[in-house]
Amino acid sequence: MRSARSTMSTSLVIIPTYDEAENVRPIVARTLAATDDSVHVLVVDDNSPDGTGDIADEIARETDRVHVMHRTVKDGLGGAYLAGFAWGLEHGYDKLVEMDADGSHHPEYLPWMLELADSNDLVLGSRWIKGGEVENWPWYRELLSRGGNLYTRMALGIAVRDATGGFRVFTSSAFERIDLAGVASKGYCFQVDLCWRALEAGLRVVETPITFTEREFGVSKMSGNIVRESLTLVTKWGIDRRLREVRSVIKNHRRLPSVRKNAHAVADQSA
């Protein structure tokens, strides 16, 4: 793992990779071009057999704004992000960004999303609010995503339209109120897990529309196991929330704090 060369940067874009040799250089280049020198990139590579980590090392030798973490164990998207968060917090970054390596998330949205993080704890790039859209997705993928988010809203009682999206900005202070040590989900349900923890902690959460573009190169990591994990965990969290609500009403004669009031949506910067 390369260490940070400077503590001046305030934002860190964390890009997990596994077999993204065709994508890592283009996405890093776009990220650097879309942002100024206050934004760094951390590539978290899970020992990719296709040489992604070596390419990332080459990029890091070319610019001080790129750093690389090499992990020897592949334990899911959540594990990679948790390692990246820990690294970013240790090195003093003020904002930490989640972004995919495959180009589905457009780095050109970053300046606006980082600006929104000045007045919010968590900024979600949303496909399913007004102005958001997806490109090159088959109908069943869109149905799965919309249906999964609808079920999540109903099960958890939240207002967030795209809790499963993976393009987001956290402030470092948000992690002081989110129990990262308790995060058990490793797959894509990790995204719902963190959003749910932020809302339960009373953090200010904002959604802003993005265009999501299906990857051009490589293979999607989505699977049936990921869907089953998400349904199981979301159902469990929803039941647990309702049981705690009942206990609070019986014992304290009051409901739990709302998980809806601090979430809102905003237009994109060009609107």
UniProtKB/TrEMBL annotation:
Signal peptide: none annotated. Coiled coil: none annotated. InterPro entries: DPM1-like (IPR039528), Glyco_trans_2-like (IPR001173), Nucleotide-diphossugar_trans (IPR029044). GO terms for molecular function: glycosyltransferase activity. Keywords: Glycosyltransferase, Transferase. Residues 13-178 form the Glycosyltransferase 2-like domain. CDD domains: DPM1_like. Belongs to the glycosyltransferase 2 family. This is Dolichol-phosphate mannosyltransferase. It comes from Curtobacterium oceanosedimentum.
